[in-house]
Amino acid sequence: MITYNFKTRIRYRDIDKMGIVYYSRYYEFFEAARTDMLREMGLAYSDFEASGYALPVIESHCKYFTGAKFDEMIIVKCDIFEKPKARLKIEYEVLGEKSGEIIATGHTVHAFLNKKGRACRAPKHFLSIVSLHWEDK
Amino acid sequence: MITYNFKTRIRYRDIDKMGIVYYSRYYEFFEAARTDMLREMGLAYSDFEASGYALPVIESHCKYFTGAKFDEMIIVKCDIFEKPKARLKIEYEVLGEKSGEIIATGHTVHAFLNKKGRACRAPKHFLSIVSLHWEDK
Amino acid sequence: MITYNFKTRIRYRDIDKMGIVYYSRYYEFFEAARTDMLREMGLAYSDFEASGYALPVIESHCKYFTGAKFDEMIIVKCDIFEKPKARLKIEYEVLGEKSGEIIATGHTVHAFLNKKGRACRAPKHFLSIVSLHWEDK
Amino acid sequence: MITYNFKTRIRYRDIDKMGIVYYSRYYEFFEAARTDMLREMGLAYSDFEASGYALPVIESHCKYFTGAKFDEMIIVKCDIFEKPKARLKIEYEVLGEKSGEIIATGHTVHAFLNKKGRACRAPKHFLSIVSLHWEDK
């Protein structure tokens, strides 16, 4: 498995009338978290795109337990539990940094697209870097 | 069941680098669609909130089949298949108005919160209006 | 001058903790308003882009008088007071549909970019359509 | 004057079809930058709100020179050049961290609102902290 902790602060723009983060915003945090995880591994998404590939989201899911508040620091824990083949699944856990409380959990599933925009298997370079960072649980 | 079609146009702000709608934006379309559906039924969410209740999202899900494009008109079909008890589930289908093609499908699950912010069953007024509009499939 | 009224409803996603529209969201309403104005004139921005041109914003400004509320209908009045040369300036007035009250005013300034991404004068086709719709005040 | 540098990374959600940051997103970066500046000074906006005050934006402005790209690190330099009275003006300069190039400049003007939601002068506590950090240019 591969695991990564991303930290961010909740901004005013994220907060709705109820005083908590608007529900779709967690997906933006997921994006930032997985992009930083991949970059840290040596898989900058900008390089990935520059080489002609894409990794669009084909499924997204989130469960909300409590709402993150304005100015709170949150941790988005990302996990890859299965080595990608044609698809990459990333799981997320959003925690309050101070409270340690679980705020939300979710996942995204991504497809690999080649230079022609067609679904393909994970590129070898991608897989070998994933293997390099893989830790048995 | 209750069904409702919401129509909206894709804006530049919704489109990402790939030239298609950014994945979290569909949840914003879902919000607009369900709010209009409830208002049409006589359940304006602003009234619902004014009377002390809330209906926060506790789960959201979306599958993406193809990406909506800039300036395209989309239809978000909302369905309630089960009368709400402690929770309300709404299902969505996003279609290209012109193409008729399915762009995405998803659902949201909502909890009812009373004036004290505690989970409660669907208020009677809410249920009776749902019953009023209910159609057997 | 050219004038156009765009109508939209305020959504939950637009509202912040203070219960009013978050300040940057008005610029999204401006985008929707000017895009619809241009499309109505026969200048669909998607066609404009497809023909290789772009019309990026080089300046934006907004003054906020009162805050639009959740579920409120607003009117965004767009005005072009000067025929474009190298730049196009659009002015906006946001009004509550019911109250008639001015919520915000603003403007955006746009540059014309040609197929090479370089600043250019307004294309002839663009200018002739503007002239077609021009009304002396 | 008071000056502060805020650093952030451009995310996929910020990027539009042209491959650059969507114009309204800079205002979100401005919000993050000024909130962090104030917190660093000892003026956490969450405390400010908790004490009954608010500091809504009454004017916003931005000029765009070039577009920030996906995954780029930007610096948002915030400056307060005048001690606030009834209003607080904050100026911004957005720079590419690597390029050093100016991407955008802008400002926001804020009003002070008291517990009754009425415009008021800057609270004494606010002013004394501003004075504490003030540096003559």
Give the topology, please.
Four copies of one chain form a homotetramer.
Chain A: E1 2-9, H1 25-41, H2 45-50, E2 57-64, E3 73-80, E4 87-96, E5 102-113, E6 119-120, H3 124-133
Brief synopsis:
4 copies of one chain form a homotetramer. Chain A is α+β, with helices and mostly antiparallel strands and 137 residues long. Chain A contains 3 helices and 6 strands.
Please give a structural write-up.
Four copies of one chain form a homotetramer. Chain A has one domain (2-133): Thiol Ester Dehydrase, Chain A, CATH 3.10.129. The mean pLDDT of chain A is 96. The first copy, chain A, has helices spanning 25-41, 45-50, 124-133; strands spanning 2-9, 57-64, 73-80, 87-96, 102-113, 119-120. Helix content of chain A is 24%, strand content 35%. Chains in contact: A-B, A-C, A-D, B-C, B-D, C-D. Chains A and B meet through helix 1 and strand 2 of A and helix 1 and strand 2 of B. Strand 2 of chain C pairs antiparallel with strand 2 (57-64) of chain D.
